Amino acid sequence: MHLFYTPEILPENEFFTLNEQESKHAVKVLRLAENDEVNLIDGKGNFFTAKIVQAHQKHCKLSIVEHIAEYQKRNYELSVAIAPTKNNERTEWFCEKATEIGIDHIFPIVSYHSERKKINPERFEKKIISAIKQSYKAYKPEFHDLQKFKNFVKTDFKGQKFIAHCYEPVNKMYSLKEIYKPEMPVLIMIGPEGDFSKEEIQLAVENGFKEITLGDFRLRTETAALFAVSTVNLCSNFSGK
Fold first, then answer.
1. What pTM was computed for the model?
2. Where does a domain end: 44, 68, 92?
């Protein structure tokens, strides 16, 4: 069944009209007609089944048949702070795949060794929206504004805080799998191609971050970030089994 992202829809709606772009896609491209059923998501956890009652190319009207709240809600909350890569497509790839696996917040940060210090948020939003539609996710990850590392590391976060790096640890180095506590909110910071600076790691530790390793091999930024997302997902879904 075809899925549409409709952030304007409300749980109490009995009817809903697709915007002009989605109406054209539904009627002219997909050739959907009256009485055909579609699914809708609002990005906030609401999942709808709807039936087309007026197949118009500019304002396709739907009747809501079923509404499911908190559709496939995960048992963990995951945030990743990542230094955008020089090649935009690699960061876009991470956003896409992390959305498919499960993530709540993506914080782009500028680190000392960052090669990219400006981004176009719309590019990443498009990838994220495409990924939630492809994977039938009712929750859309939030892509935040670009921040400097020194500011971001001092922000208040209620939950576990980790920073991944490849240096000798300031305190103690853990593997993500051994230190992560399932079902607790978690924030993981992933550095740029040249890693975080030692001064940044020290600052992170001073602000409550624990140091983690993602294995014995040096990984690309986007690979390391996706590995972290996958590890949290596996630990959360298979803990105690």
1. 0.93
2. 68
